[in-house]
Structures are given as structure tokens and as C-alpha cells.
Amino acid sequence: MASSLINFLEELDTNSNLMEAYKKDPVATAAKYGLSDEDLTLIKEQNWDEVKKRFDDASKANRVVSY
User: Fold this and answer.
1) Angle formed by the axes of helices 5-14 and 37-44, nearest 10°
2) What is the DSSP string of 36-62?
3) Is 30 helix (H, G, I), strand (E, B) or coil?
4) pLDDT for position 17
5) Residue ranges of domains in the chain
6) What are phi and psi of 60, to 5 degrees?
7) What confidence score (pLDDT) does residue 54 get?
8) Structure confidence at residue 41 (pLDDT)
């Protein structure tokens, strides 16, 4: 089962190994995590406005995404 982008970004906050892998290769790390092609495109294009909308849509507190 594929993971959600929101779960992935939350995991980045708490998992230092995942964060280090993400810093080296964001798209490959996200793909290995199981994100959809659509979510991978958001990361590849650094479309942080759309990512923020997903957090807002999930009724979660606003977060600054600057990875």
C-alpha cells in the first residue's frame, strides 16, 4: 500500500535516517517510501504550495515545508 505525502513529510521530522536519505536524493527516497507518481512530481518540481494545500485539506496545523 502506498503511503501518503503527508505521512512521508511527518516522518521526515522524526526519522533522521530518512531525512539524510532525502537530502541526498529527495525523489528516490520518496519513491522508496511508496509515494504515488503524483506526489513524486510535487517533490521533483518542489511545488510546496500544493503540498501546503494537502496539509490544509487534511485539517492539520499549518506547517512550513522547506526540505
Assistant:
1) 60
2) -HHHHHHHHTT-HHHHHHHHHHTTPPP
3) helix
4) 96
5) 1-62
6) -105, 165
7) 79
8) 96
